[in-house]
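Batch manifest, entry 17 of 40.
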Amino acid sequence: MTTRFDTKIAILLRDDLEVWQRLNVTAFLASGVAASAPGLVGEPYADADGTAYLAMFGQPVLVMEGDRDVLRAAHERCRRRTLPVTVFTRELFATGHDEANRAAVAAVAAADLDVVGLGVHAPRNAVDKVLKGAHLHP
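Output type: structure tokens
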């Protein structure tokens, strides 16, 4: 049985990223979404032997992709709708820790950010609207 959630978690990646960059950006963006709403994370797991495992999201995460224009438009739509969004900019590939990451984002006006990925958690229809033009990552 498939559960239909009222909200959607989506990660949008630029289609010109290297594979390692896509994976790295996805991990960072998902962590931002998880931190934004603790209720998104389910209970810890355990196997039949009693080995404990960390909890994960309680709902699916869609990984989408689009070109630079799709990312720019999605970022702007998130901002206009004041949706909670996490961003990863091209400059973050050259930084090495959270403080440097935040400084790199803070140094650039929102409209000028070179966004290569964003993560969003919001009502399903809002996420669908802000990600218009994106498609599922292959």
